């Protein structure tokens, strides 16, 4: 744990607690106002509760050139990033990804895609659709461990986080309240519901909220598509390829479109936002994650559009390489923020319920 980052964030939090001008903003400030002293775990909790909407910065009278020099969005972003790195295993790779995420993502996608192209030389004797190039058994044996192992690493990190922030047994009302906030992205709506100040400075905008919504629901639809295909395959003996009006396609096509458009929106907004109001060292890693997530949706759509053409082998290798890279990088990319933010919202619901 970086005590310098924690202490600086604590200094700013204590000033905010004395001022209370931003009391109506997001979930962070009511959480601050419920306390008088802040342990290290409290600062970690507040950092992960922050959605970096930046409204508090533009409302604050104590930013530079004031001697207090408050920049709470940046202070919390740096603590948040440090906590993700600290809870990851191995932690040094998480730090490396934040510094060189685009390069690592590109190399990983390209390397895995080449590997999948080579594996297609061992194509099965029979099989339809994608399974004509790579057997179902081979896909399962590759992707199941690549999905489960990173989630296990995330689970260990969440266990450490929960202990540090003083979490207790999770009850249904706490989970329901947190999931409701996630579904509506409540904390990106600003204190008055006008949106956040992420890319337009002191002007409100809902663009980031809408891009996040498209990305979130696009990802969930794609995941539901894959899950429905798995159920059809193992539960009903219905093997791919599936027609357009099948459940996997009815979920996957709109999911891919939403995921692609949402990630394009997030990438554009990141180029407009002030880097000094976040953790500057995270910028490359965050952009790499957005690009990788968007590429997952886009290559999936291209692959579906190319069905029956000679472009399928190459597009299949690129798509599978992108998906596998996304899975492997879950504990180290900003994908992990979803897990920690949900945990922070659950913990906040617990504290509010106990107050």
TrEMBL record:
Regions crossing the membrane: 96-118, 130-158, 214-236, 251-269, 289-306, 312-332
Record InterPro entries: Citrate_utilization_prot_B, NarG-like_sf
Keyword field: Membrane, Transmembrane, Transmembrane helix
Protein name: Tricarballylate utilization 4Fe-4S protein TcuB
Organism: Halovulum dunhuangense
